[in-house]
Amino acid sequence: MDLKTYINECKKHWRWFAATLTATLIAAILFLLMFAPRYERSATVLIKDENGGGGLLSSMSASMGMLAGMAGINIASNVSNEMEIMSSPALVMEVVNQLNLDTRYETYDGLMKHELWEETLPVKLTFPKLTDKDGAYMKMDLREDGTFTLYKMRKNKDKQSGEIEGKVNTVSQTPIGPVSVMATKHFQQIMATKKNMTIRIIKEKKYDQVERCMKQMDIALSDDQTSIIHIGYRDQIAERAETIISTLIKVYQEAWMNDKMNAADVSNLFINERIKDIEQELSGLDKDIAQFRGNNLMPDYEEAAKMFMANASLTYEQQVKVNNQLYMMEQMRNQVNHAEGTNQVLPANLLPDNENVAKQINEYNKLQLQRNQMAENSSDNNPLVKDLDAQLGSMRKAIVNSLDHGVAQLKASQKAVNREDQKLKQQISAAPSAVTKVLPAERQHKIIEALYIYLLEKREENSLTQVYNSQNLRIVSPPMGQLKPVFPKKGVTLLVALLLGLLLPAIYEYLKQSIKSMLNEA
């Protein structure tokens, strides 16, 4: 079959082309008339680096990566973790609850179904007796005077018969339970224009609505080289899409703040307990020294012992430093051992001179919070939760090993300092016996007092860190988007209809002529 013959045959059947083209264009027009346009809105946020905070353990975060790699622990990047948290069903559920997205209101404008929201919504309905697992449907004929009729009611899949008359701002008893119908602030303006409205009310199951929202949501990393996250959402109502994105960011920030507050509270509790113990010990030493001086009428011996104290000043400083570090390291080791199986975060910001352990505990707390949130959304038997428990166990062992190594090193340093201290005691032993008896108590008092002041400073530092680290993200671009809908595109739809209207009969004619030529040759 040559091209000229094919073209002539197509001309003979021009009515086919006209009919098909008319049908596809009509179908395209009906499609555009039936499907409401959908808009896309997006925002971008910058996730800040959490390692810059000035707490007690934050200074130890630099060496965590090396030890985590040695332990075989795979820790996701901070940005990836925050993306997973931001897109979690728990946060989306909170957005649905705050905006009441599980109840939708629809009305028809010709063939097109429109959703009502804010300025276009005259009333809002609530269903006090329905649970999160219940769904409902009904129609409402709403009139300008505030009266309405509810009919075609359905709870889950069970249809309910009958019609219910009522008035706005009241509670109506219906076959599916009490229904509260409250007028919005736009009621008068809308009904003055519409006079009467027929509204379809759909009460979705909460979990179905969460899944519906997650399908319309897109959260992705803007670039592999940045920590900027792109948050997109598609919706029939552009303003609602913007509100959903803004609410998601707000809910995420509130959840992050709660996690930070919990971790800070654990650290403060740990410090306060240590301070309380030291205060009791200092009080006992103060009483012993005061009683000894009173009984012995001890004069001021500072000038007599100035030469020895000058030579021993360096020893005192080293002794204070080693005792502080050893005390905090042993207390932290006890805390880590007691934390096994409790699914609680560990105290942070307590060992400023050991950056290796700091980062381990920082990453452990992040993974622990992620595990707790996943367990709340599912259960402790979830395979992902058990996998995280295994990772947490490995991390605890790595932390305990690091703390044991640090304690061993500090004890060795303590022995060396104590040997130097013994030399000082031998020199001081030549002083009057009264001085010799009271000096160890005073020295111990100074050491414990230095530790006491150190803990007070760290408590204040932890409080300041908690204030300054009030946010972990910055909004780079607020929710916005183009005024044109992303679906359906009128030009593309009509063009596709036009092409189909021309191609379908052309293909049919081509196949028909090809088969005819093959039969003639045979």
UniProtKB/TrEMBL annotation:
Pfam families documented for this protein: GNVR (PF13807), Wzz (PF02706)
An example molecular function term from Gene Ontology annotations: protein tyrosine kinase activity
Domain Tyrosine-protein kinase G-rich: 441-513
Keywords carried by this UniProt record: Cell membrane, Membrane, Transmembrane, Transmembrane helix
Entries under InterPro entries matching the protein: Bact_polysacc_biosynth/exp, GNVR, LPS_length_determ_N
TM helices/strands, residue ranges: 16-36, 492-511
Membrane topology, as annotated: Multi-pass membrane protein
Keyword match Transmembrane helix: yes
UniProt-annotated location(s): Cell membrane
Cellular component terms (Gene Ontology): plasma membrane
Domain Polysaccharide chain length determinant N-terminal, chain residue ranges per copy: 1-99
UniProt protein name: Uncharacterized protein
